[in-house]
Design goal:
The complex is a heterodimer of chains A (about 400) and B (about 260). Chain A contains 15 helices and 15 strands. By secondary structure, chain A is an alpha/beta fold. The longest helix of chain A is centred in the N-terminal third of the chain and has 15 residues. In chain B, about 45% of the residues lie in helices and about 15% in strands. In chain B, strand 1, helix 2 and strand 2 form a beta-alpha-beta unit. The longest helix of chain B has 19 residues. Chain B is globular, with a radius of gyration of 17 Å. Classes of the chains: A alpha/beta (about 400), B alpha/beta (about 260). Chains A and B meet through helix 1, helix 8 and strand 12 of A and helix 5, strand 6 and helix 8 of B.
């Protein structure tokens, strides 16, 4: 007899709980605690108070006038998650889950990080709430996102280097899960994206949905109508699902997710789960059934992206579902296109975007010229790019 | 639903607690891994768990992680793991053989195709650490159709409700994880094992085997008093990795462990 779950465990056929037995009771406990917190007015007030007075929400919606003129077509708006405290949308989820952990009586927080934004957000939330924090990070990512490693350490977090596998996000998650399996009694696993076993994809989406909720009011204030297109980059997919969710029932709003096209799709040097049908197909990674990049033997493929936050072999299960339902479409931007978009936003708008978010901007630059001037695009500018300067300066020539 | 798996339960028919080693197929290379498994069987192992490598073994500690990485570098894929079972049968090994591995390569290969081929090669059942009973319905069906065992796992964190679920769904034996953690040798075993086993026994009638953390004859003897089977993996892989004659060294270790378990019966 299967125990009845209070929240749906799957999005269509995607999602689920493919984890070692040790963690199954922990996931049940987490789901119950999350449902109870959702219904607890005091918990919700505390979270919204922090989002207001600490994170600085609502984040603005900025009309990118010069970028729009440059593209010649649709008006491009930027949802400024880069202005959230700690520099990215990740703080919305980190604070929500850290409060939940505290409510559950857990004294130790663990997290994985790729770009370091989720690690920094978690370290921030733990410093604020007085929780002990350990973040796992691949050594390749520690190299390319060194400023974030320093920030986490300043915030009192222990950063543990992960040297296994591809030394990126996937391997950091492996190590975080191993830690959780070992210390499940007192440890809360603060997963940073809308992936992993149920209830994480649902819970992370809920904590990030505030992005879309704010966007709705802001774009109506500015344009007196809903946007025609919403674009977000998709690694695991938390910023994308966060802005999409509010608009899923608005059939006239196109939702576009942008994966990391890396160097090229045909050579396999990318993290585009949907674009490369030779290695992208449904499978199980880190506890959920979704699209996964894998070789013909079902071994998880190594990924490549200039942006650490998109450099991951699986995509959140709700995105796979939205794609199957034809409610959202998914495309990709290459490293070069992302770097070009990065530079353009710096020069035209005075905003240094994260390399992750630059993938979404790249798609807006492709689309806008083919749309009429009455139409609008909202790009979720999920994070700021200070962390990426080393990578960017290696790739582009500033001497002009 | 318990389907008595005569072949797997055969391992528990002896007077002594069964010794059930795990070894990674393809470590340190394909032929040597078969030599080691043969040597373990000849030294008195009652059942062998054959590890199928996966790129992201999230329930495993460093020893088994490393062995599976080596196996993957040696090009060992699921096809070769299935072939290994046949090769071992051709070498005259008659003890029960269980294939143990993570779910994605099996899903990718095709559950039905995998189970049917495993049956044809002479395997007796499966252990899939990241496939809890909630997600195992279709794989279970293929096992039942092919009369193969599917051993689910229970952990010290498992609730009574989950123990009942596993009691209903598992076949062959139930794999008790001795501690919250990944695989790997430990110096001390937890002292709550007796209570844990007692709770499981209230609901599970299948034989019980304990694994994770066990590495010495003394530990095996202590655990063997509680259950019908003792599982050792990482220690055997360490021995294989450290020895110039891994098959002989592993065989010797198995003989010592079996002898310790026999003394106690």
């Amino acid at each position: 007899m299967e125990t009845k779950s209070p929240l749906p465990k799957k999005f269509g056929q995607y999602g689920g709980q493919f984890v070692p037995e040790v963690l199954m009771p922990a996931l049940e406990e987490l789901e119950k605690a999350y449902i109870s917190a959702q219904q607890d007015q005091a918990f919700q007030s505390k979270l919204y108070d922090l989002l207001d007075t600490y994170v600085g929400r609502p984040t603005p919606l900025t009309f990118a006038q010069r970028l729009s003129t440059h593209c010649g077509g649709a008006k491009i708006y930027l949802k400024r998650e880069d202005l959230a405290h700690s520099g990215a949308h990740k703080i919305n989820n980190a604070l929500g889950q850290a409060l939940l952990a505290k409510r559950m009586g857990k004294s130790r927080i663990i997290a994985e990080t790729g770009a370091g934004q989720h690690g920094v957000a978690t370290a921030t939330a733990c410093a604020l709430l007085g929780l002990k924090c350990v973040v796992y990070m691949g050594t390749v990512d520690m190299d390319r996102q060194a400023p974030n490693v320093a920030r986490m350490r300043l915030l009192g977090t222990e950063v543990r280097a992960v040297d296994g596998g591809s030394q990126t996000l996937k391997d950091a998650i492996n190590e975080a899960i191993r830690d959780w399996v070992t210390n499940v009694d007192d440890t809360y696993y603060l997963l940073g994206s809308a992936l992993g076993p149920h209830p994480y994809p649902t819970m992370v989406r809920d904590f990030q949905s505030i992005i879309g909720q704010e966007t709705r009011g802001q774009i109506i204030d500015a344009e007196n109508m809903l946007p025609d297109v919403i674009i977000a980059c998709v690694g695991g997919g938390s910023n994308a699902i966060g802005i999409f969710h509010e608009f899923i029932n608005e059939k006239n709003v196109s939702l576009i997710g942008v994966e990391a096209g890396g160097l090229d799709i045909s050579g396999g040097k990318h993290a585009a789960r949907f674009a490369d049908t030779s290695i992208g197909r449904p499978g199980v990674l880190h506890g959920c059934y979704t699209y996964v990049l894998q070789d013909e033997d079902g071994q998880i493929a190594l990924t490549h992206s200039v942006s650490a936050g998109l450099d991951y072999a699986a995509i959140g299960p709700e995105h796979t579902y939205l794609r199957e339902q034809k409610r959202a479409t998914y495309t990709h931007a290459s490293d070069a296109e992302a770097l070009h978009a990065f530079q353009l936003l710096c020069e035209l708008e005075g905003i240094i975007p994260a390399l992750e978010s630059s993938h979404a901007i790249a798609e807006a630059i492709k689309l806008a010229p083919n749309m009429s001037p009455e139409t609008t695009i909202v790009v979720n500018l999920s994070g700021r790019g200070d962390k990426d300067l080393d990578t960017v300066l290696d790739e582009i020539d500033l001497k002009k | 639903m318990t389907i008595p798996k005569e072949e797997v339960t055969k391992a528990f028919n002896n007077k002594h607690t069964a010794f059930m080693p795990y070894f990674t197929l393809g470590y340190p290379d394909y032929q040597t891994s078969l030599d080691i498994i043969q040597s373990c069987a000849e030294a008195g192992a009652d059942l062998m768990e054959l590890g199928m490598p996966f790129s992201d073994p999230l329930a495993d500690g460093p020893t088994i992680q490393n062995s599976t990485q080596v196996a993957l570098k040696n090009g060992v894929d699921i096809e070769q793991c299935l072939q290994a079972v046949g090769d071992l049968r051709n070498r005259g090994i008659t003890i029960p053989l269980m294939l143990m591995g993570y779910y994605n390569p099996i899903l990718n290969y095709g559950e039905q195709r995998f189970v049917e081929k495993a049956e044809a090669s002479g395997a007796n059942g499966f252990i899939i650490p990241d496939l809890p009973p909630e997600e195992g319905a279709s794989f279970e069906c293929h096992c039942i159709n092919n009369k193969l065992a599917l051993s689910y796992l229970l952990a010290p964190t498992s609730t009574e409700e989950r123990i009942k679920l596993v009691a209903e769904k598992a076949s062959g034996f139930v794999y008790l994880v001795s501690l919250t953690g990944v695989t790997g040798a430990r110096i001390d075993l937890p002292n709550y094992l007796q209570d844990f086993v007692g709770l499981v026994r209230r609901h599970v009638t299948d034989p019980l085997a304990i694994g994770f953390g066990i590495s010495t004859p003394d530990q095996a003897q202590a655990v063997g008093k509680l259950v019908e089977g003792v599982i050792v993996g990482s220690k055997l892989i360490n021995i294989a990795g450290d020895s110039t004659n891994p098959a002989e060294a592993c065989g010797q270790f198995v003989a010592d462990m079996v002898s310790a378990l026999k003394q106690d019966s």
